[in-house]
Design brief:
The protein has 254 residues and is mainly α. It has two domains: 42-107, Orthogonal Bundle (Arc Repressor Mutant, subunit A), CATH 1.10.10.10; 128-239, Winged helix-like DNA-binding domain superfamily/Winged helix DNA-binding domain (Arc Repressor Mutant, subunit A), CATH 1.10.10. It is 46% helix and 9% strand. A two-stranded antiparallel sheet has the order 1-2. Strands 3-4 form a two-stranded antiparallel ribbon.
């Protein structure tokens, strides 16, 4: 019995290429480039993204912005539109920036001082103790309260750490496996957002941190008013162990 191309599955017609041998077949198997936006749809998508970013009080991620157009525009094209939008706002008093949590509009620093003149809430002035504590956490994280005290050379008040936690700038990220299992503190994504940074690698030099923090405190209001102890830690420096002992002796003497 003769076997032909219909009865013998191993015999392929000469004009039908085997998988992997035809260049056209290989090209089809490769991943295709993301579809480009039609020129007519770009302005509409741009206005949608612009409206969402201007109305949002928090940064928005590319994934969130992609949902605005029901996923019809891929992430790469969303980023291209955002870059175009950023260029359109470059010469205005408000700019489109990228931070750790995504994209957002913000008042340029050189115009923020004018906005502060009519702001109902004044930005808090941080004490040296709070700024030093924040700097140690930012540049040496993760750290324990003992680590901070070792660097500063004085005791760290729980109110100082609480104030920074309530501000949303530091958080506990675990515990060190040593006796007592002290909490480990690190900076948050909100800390980077308020400083208009995308990552810790963009942190300014230590001596510039205080000047950067001053406008940052005015950009986003404190969500919850700190308690009395926290407020005191924001206003004045913490007492050293020696000054605390002196106060205690005076109280006994009285």
């Amino acid at each position: 019995m003769e076997m032909n191309e219909q009865t013998n599955p191993e015999v392929l017609p000469d004009d039908e290429p085997k998988p992997g041998t035809d260049p056209d077949f290989v090209e089809q198997a490769e991943p295709s480039e993301p579809p480009a936006l039609e020129s007519g749809s770009v302005p509409h998508v741009k206005r949608v993204l612009e409206a969402a970013l201007l109305s949002s009080s928090e940064p928005l991620t590319v994934l969130q912005l992609k949902r605005l157009v029901s996923g019809q525009v891929d992430a790469d094209n969303i980023r291209k539109v955002l870059d175009e939008l950023k260029g359109e706002w470059a010469e205005r008093s408000i700019e489109l920036t990228t931070v750790a949590s995504g994209w957002r509009f913000r008042v340029k620093p050189e115009y923020q001082e004018f906005i502060d003149r009519i702001a109902s809430e004044k930005a808090p002035r941080y004490s040296r103790a709070v700024l030093e504590t924040l700097a140690i956490v930012a540049y040496r994280q993760p750290v324990t309260r003992g680590d901070i005290e070792e660097v500063r050379g004085v005791a760290v008040s729980p109110a100082t750490l609480k104030a920074l936690e309530e501000r949303g700038w530091i958080e506990s990220v675990g515990h060190r496996e040593t006796p007592g299992r002290p909490a480990l503190f690190a900076t948050t994504r909100k800390f980077l957002d308020d400083l208009n940074l995308r990552s810790l690698e963009e942190l300014p030099p230590l001596e510039e941190l205080q000047s950067v923090l001053e406008p940052a405190t005015a950009l986003v209001p404190i969500d919850a008013a700190p308690g009395r102890d926290a407020q005191e830690s924001l206003i004045g420096d913490e007492p050293t162990p020696e000054s605390s002992d002196t106060q205690e002796r005076h109280s006994h003497a009285g």
